[in-house]
Structures are given as structure tokens and as C-alpha cells.
Amino acid sequence: MLASGVGKMKSLLMDMNLTLLTEFMAGLGEPPFRAGQLARWLFQRGAVSWAEMTDLPLALRERLQETAVIGGLSMVKKQVSRRKDTVKYLFGLSDGQAVESVLMRHSYGRSACVSTQVGCRMGCRFCASTLGGLVRPLSAGEIYGQVLAIGRDSGQRISHVVLMGSGEPLDNFDPVMRFLENITSSYGLNISYRHITLSTCGLVPRIRELARRRLAITLAVSLHAPADSLRDRLVPVNRRYPLGELLPACREYAALTGRRITFEYALLSGVNDAPGQACQLARLLRGLPCHVNLIPFNPVAGRGFKRSAPERVRQFLGILREQGVNATVRRELGADIDAACGQLRRRSAGMMKD
């Protein structure tokens, strides 16, 4: 939580929570209520300069400028879909790295899909984010900053948050937990836990740890295969945490939180979309409170996978429903822009040719 200033290190305030801000302000000789004021400027109003914090004394703002950094992201690139329902952003970080975020407009509100890492080390075979490996995790403030930047650019209140951008959120556990603490707080954007979805490829110990916290967030598990033999190839973390460990952890999560699990299943032509695999998936999930989200695959250059034909998608969906599985096909948003996670960053970095 330190950044280099001119000749000294400065505290990164966006990486703190209210407790740490209170301790920081106490170190400056300030009472606790000043920390609350500062927190609201940072996390609720999205202040980008000390001058905006008009209810703080000028002398305090000058001291803050000497000892602390607000932090924030710069917009590198922005893509808007033809239907205007999706906006994809590439945000620059202070060290020159960049991350992707997406604004999605729905009938029920506006969702911000945010990244939790620069790159990813999970190695999922059809994902663009993992092509360059993991560069570094994001701090709590860098994750939060994406939501603020999207809200600032769109001029609209963000009502839902999806941790489904680049990176594995549970591989960056502590910063993600602090992000959740801040964004759901009264000094932050006060977004309900029930309006937050966290996606994971299946880090079983972290799923169990998250379950014990009993947060009312939706857990979305990137499943993509009904059997270990195929999932080992598509989602390599399955070799460490196979379905025999993953599914019991999901049952524990549902039991402790009272929330059903979402299973994400990207349909890949000739790979995981056969009728028999739909039946296999239905048997695998029997008795588990869940919803299956079938995803039309966004092709990624260099990966060699193709999306399933529409009739194949309908057939797969029909089989799941016939077998009593709650399932839907994800509505496609932003198909005409760099929709798959990691594509915009790689293109902008000159790592991929059109």
C-alpha cells in the first residue's frame, strides 16, 4: 500500500479499508470522523484530486498530498458496441500495465465486469487472458478503480459488479476480499452482495474459505466439461482440483450461503457440445442448487476452437432442461467488439495481429 513519491514513499489510500484509513489519519493527528470523510470521497464520490475534498481543511489536504496518493486509472482505449449496450475499456495502470473492463447495460441495471489480475496463470485453453501468463495481481484499489472509472465515463450508477474479467479472482484472494468490503460499504458504492458475481475456474480451498465468510455473492464456476478427462485439457487446474473435489466444495458453498451456484459452460464445436455430454452434465449436477449458463464461444486467435452451431446450442439446452437442470443461454453482448477477456489488451499491446 505504498507508492513512490518525490524522494519518499507515499501511502496508497485506495488500497485501504476504513479501519486502515482511520489508523492512517490518526498518524496525522486527525480524529476518526476525518477517515470517514476521506473514505466517502475516495470510494463513493470517486475523487481524483485533493481539491475536490472540500469538507476537509486545506491544511489537511496539503498534508495528504505530501504523504498519500489517491490512485486511479487512465483510459487507454474504449470500444462501444453497435447496439450501445456494451462498452469495453482498456485502463492503464501506474506501472504501464493495462487491464480490461466492460460496462453492460441490462433492463435491470448496469453491470461492471472487472479484472482482478494482469494476465492469468490458470492456463484455460480457450481463454485469451492466459496467453501471456500472469503479469501481476491487481491491488484492491486497482480493482475498485475500474468500477469508478466506468461510472465516471458513463455518467450512470453501477448497480451490479461481475468479477469475470482477466485473472482468477480467488488467486488474488485478499485484495478481492478488501475490494468487496469497500464496494458494499456505506462509505463506498453500497452495492449489495447479492448484486455481485465472482467467477472462478475452481480453486477448491479458496471456494471453501469464501463459503465460510457467508457472503451473499453469486459464485460462478467455469465448468466447461462434464468429466475430468476433458476438463483436465480445457481447464488445467482440474488436474489439481478434480470434479470429485470441486462439486462437494460447491455444495458446501450453497449450503453455507444459501446461494445457488452458477456453472458456466462455453460450448465448443465438436469438443463439449454432444448430446451425451449434456446428459453427463445433468447427472453430474443432480441435486445441487444451481443454474447452468451456456455461453456461445467468442473465438480467440491462436486457440483453434470454434463456437457451436445454433442448433447444437438449442439441442444441448433442451436436454439439460428435460433432465431438470435450470439452464439458459447467455445473451450475447458486445460480439462486434473485442468481447473475449484479454483480447483488447493483447491487441493494444501489439501482441496479436488482426
Give an overview of the whole structure.
The chain is an alpha/beta fold and 354 residues long. It has two domains: 2-69, Orthogonal Bundle (DNA polymerase, domain 1), CATH 1.10.150.530; 74-348, TIM Barrel. The chain contains eleven helices and 15 strands. The strands form three sheets. A ten-stranded mixed β-sheet has the order 4-5-6-7-10-11-12-13-14-15. A three-stranded mixed β-sheet has the order 1-2-3. Strands 8-9 form a two-stranded antiparallel sheet. A hairpin with a 2-residue loop joins strand 6 (98-106) and strand 7.
Helix content: 25-40%
Strand content: 15-25%
Number of E-state strands: 15
Poorly predicted regions are 350-354
Helix-strand pattern, N to C? EEHHHEEEEEEEHEHEHEHHEHEHEH
Write the CATH homologous superfamily of the largest domain.
Aldolase class I
CATH topological fold name of the largest domain: TIM Barrel
CATH C-level class of the largest domain is Alpha Beta
Strand order of the largest sheet: 4-5-6-7-10-11-12-13-14-15
Overall geometry comes to elongated
Distance between the termini: 38 Å
Number of domains: 2
Q: What is the averaged pLDDT score?
A: 92
Overall CATH architecture of the largest domain: Alpha-Beta Barrel
What would you report as the Rg, rounded to the nearest angstrom? 21 Å
Major beta sheet summary: 10 strands, mixed
